[in-house]
Each structure stands twice: as C-alpha cells, then as structure tokens.
Write a structure and sequence with these properties.
Blueprint: H1 2-18, H2 22-63, H3 73-89, H4 97-107, H5 117-129, H6 137-154, H7 159-178, H8 181-193, H9 198-219, E1 225-227, H10 238-268, H11 276-290, H12 299-306, H13 313-332, H14 340-361, H15 369-391, E2 413-415
Parallel strand pairs: 1-2
Helix pairs in contact: 2-5, 2-6, 2-7, 2-9, 3-5, 3-11, 5-6, 6-7, 7-8, 7-9, 8-9, 10-13, 10-14, 10-15, 11-13, 12-14, 13-14, 14-15
C-alpha cells in the first residue's frame, strides 16, 4: 500500500507539472478504471470457479464415502470461514453492498474504504463457491466502485469527480460481469448516481465500454445465457403473460419481505456475529441434500429451463419456494453476495411452471414453457426495479438493500 501511495504522489506531481485538462484526467482515469475493473471481475469469477471446484469437486469426493449428507457441510464450512474473515478483517458496517456505495456517493463524496475490498471479494467467492444461495453481482459492483473510489482518493480529486469514478467503476463492473455495457451505464446513472450530467455520462460510458471490451478479450463475447428463438404464434397467449406478470409481482413482494424477515431474525439472535453465516449454512446445507439446485448462483438450472428442459410442475414449485427461502436465509445470515441472480432463478422457475400448467390446460395453444421462463425472469426484474425506485422515497434505517442491484435484462441474454 505504501508503494501505491508513493506512486500516486509522483503521479500527482507529474500532473501538476503537465497541467492536463480536467476532461483529459477524467478520461484517462475512466479508461484505466475500465481496464482494472474488468481484470478484477475476471479474477473474481476465476476464484468463484476455483472454490466451487474445490468444494463440490475435491472436498466432496473426500467426504462422499461418509454419506451423501456430507454435502451439507460445505455451506457450513464456508460460513465459518466467511464469518471469521469479515469479523476479524472488516468489522461491522452500518451499510454494506450497493446500499453502502449509494450512501458513500450521497453523503461522503464517494469515499469508500477501499482497503477492505480484497477481503470482502474473497469472502464472496468463498460464500458462492461453498453453495450459499447468493449471486455475484453485488460483490462485482463493489469491486468496480472501490477501484473508482481508490483512484479518486489517490489522485486527490474533488468529491464530484470521486463520485463520478465510483459510478464509472460500478458501470464497468456490470459491463464486465454480464457483457452488457449499456446495462452498466444505466445502472450507474440510475441507481448509483441518481442523476445524469454530460461529464458524468462520458466517464461512465467510457469505463463501461472499455471494461466490456477487455472482458470479451479475456473470455470471448459470451453472454450470461444462451436463449433460443421462441415463436409467438397466437394472440391468445397475451392474457397468460399478463397473469404471469401479476404472479411475478406477488413473488417479488414475498421475496423482499422474506429477506427483510430473515435479516431481522438473525439480527436478534444472541450468538456471535461471526457464527451467523455458519448457522445460515446449516439450513442451506440440509436443504441442499434434497434439492442441490438451490446451491450457489443457479445459472446452470436457469440455462436448462430456458432451453426446454422442463421438470415437473411440482418440482419447479418446490424449487421456487426453496430458492426464495434459502436466498433470504443466506443474505440474512450474513453471507456476502447479491440477490439478482437468485431472483432470475425464481422468475425462470415461476415462468416455466406456469407455462407447463397452461400448456396442459390449453393444449390447443402452442405454448412453450421456456418462453414463459424468460418472461418470468423479465417480469421479476421489472417488479424489483419498480420497488427499488419506490423504496428511494422511504428511509431504511437498517441499510437493507434487497433490490438495489437490478440491471436491464435485455443485454444479459443472447437471443439467437
């Protein structure tokens, strides 16, 4: 860290001598920020894959002779490691995740405690790799935003410029994580900044584009999901999509309230804070013995549903309820991670189950359950975005942020 400080001092001295324009400084910072953010997100994803292989590959192969129940130990062990890391090296924070970034932008000039970010990111990779029902988007945004705040603080920029770099880092994170630069731009301007100015837009857009291009160079132009072409054959399907939207709205309300309820339950438990993720891991692990699909992000299950692998309606309903509850327990118990990826799982399960039911009820209609799975994911995301906007009008004293992490879905998918 001392070397980084010395480098920033020399860089500031050079800038004082050269006297570049403000737009040049912000443009250069945004360009470097896009590069570093994409590299950070790439490393973050690699670590998640590594810990998933270690947990569900190497470690479970060692434990398997003791019985299939040993898979339940993975989230417990992950919770213990995460709890100790966060307790010892990060400590308690009034706001965390995207809510913490928004608070820093609004009240602290975008000045985040970026030295804590490596521990937070490592904890998130362990949590997801060990099977906690959380997503990678919240830690990804934190990585980008903290990079931006670090650059701004090391360069001794004004509060407005630091805020711009925080938003630029967040945009770059979404762009890299989902191969979606436009989604990253809108996320940063709408959720992180809450306003649009010409100078802010330029830096945010540049960081998002550079980050997306760099990630494509590292991993290829692959979207989060490959979606086949769905045909719309009859206008009689439209009322069914309307009903699905209403159902998705109801699930969205239950989802958010479940997360808040779990947060309150764990908050009032009289046990050490560092033990709470392990306790949540016990519940997730036991559930995962019977429903392993609830472990981790759940992208593989979503991919199968979108490509026509439709389980029974009963299993889909059980997965919907289980994933909702396990996500609430994981987040409430203190596992670091996001709620966006699990919400996509819920939307896909709901849509696929509803589509299968309607296919049986109206055999004369050419209904495709995978199309309803995609519509369910979109409906879940739209409902969450609307509720996130509404919650901006109300004070949330606990800093809970169940749905401050939404990104436009149209860029997340590859529509063949």
């Amino acid at each position: 860290m001392k070397r980084l400080t010395d480098f920033s001092t020399r860089l500031i001295g050079w800038l004082d001598r050269v006297q570049p324009s403000e737009s040049s400084v912000m443009g250069g910072a945004a360009l470097i920020l896009g590069l570093t953010t994409s590299l950070g997100i790439w490393l973050f994803k690699q670590l998640i894959d590594l810990f998933e292989r270690l947990a569900f590959g190497d470690l479970i192969s060692v434990l398997q002779p003791l019985g299939s129940w040993t898979i339940a130990l993975l989230p417990v062990l992950g919770g213990l490691i995460v709890g100790v890391l966060l307790h010892r090296l990060v400590g308690e924070e009034r706001h965390h995740g995207v809510a913490g970034i928004m608070e820093a932008v609004a009240l602290a000039g975008g000045r985040l405690r970026y030295r804590r970010m490596p521990v937070k990111a490592l904890s998130a990779t362990i949590a997801i790799g060990a099977g906690a029902s959380v997503g990678p988007e919240d830690p990804s945004v934190q990585i980008g935003a903290n990079f931006g705040s670090m650059f701004g603080q090391l360069l001794h920029l004004s509060d407005d410029r630091v805020r711009t770099l925080v938003a630029s880092g967040a945009a770059g994170a979404i762009a890299a994580a989902f191969n979606a630069p436009i989604a990253g731009i809108f996320f940063a301007l709408e959720i992180i900044m809450g306003e649009l100015t010409g100078s802010t837009f330029g830096s945010v857009a540049l960081a998002a584009v550079i980050s997306a291009v760099t990630m494509q160079a590292l991993t290829g132009p692959e979207p989060a999901f490959h979606v086949p072409t769905y045909e719309f054959n009859s206008p009689m399907e439209l009322p069914l999509y309307l009903v699905l939207g209403v159902l998705a709205g109801m699930v969205a309300v239950i989802y958010i309230r479940a997360i808040y309820a779990a947060h309150d339950v764990f908050h009032h438990l009289r046990i050490p804070r560092w033990l709470k993720p392990a306790l949540a891991g016990v519940v997730v692990g036991v559930t995962g013995i019977f429903l392993p699909q609830i472990f981790g992000v759940g992208y593989s299950t979503i991919e199968r549903l979108l490509n026509g692998v439709t389980p029974s309606v009963t299993l889909l309903a059980v997965l919907l309820v289980a994933k909702l509850l396990m996500t609430a327990i994981s987040v409430g118990g203190g596992f670091p991670g996001g709620v966006f990826a699990p919400s996509l799982f819920l939307g896909a399960a709901l849509g696929s189950a509803f589509g299968a039911l309607m296919q049986g009820a109206f055999p004369q209609l050419p209904i495709a359950p995978p199309a309803f799975a995609l519509a369910g994911m979109a409906a879940r995301e739209v409902n969450a975005r609307w509720q996130a906007q509404m919650k901006d009008f109300f004070e949330d004293p606990d800093g809970r942020e169940a749905d401050k992490q939404m990104v436009p879905l149209e860029e997340v998918f590859h529509l063949d």
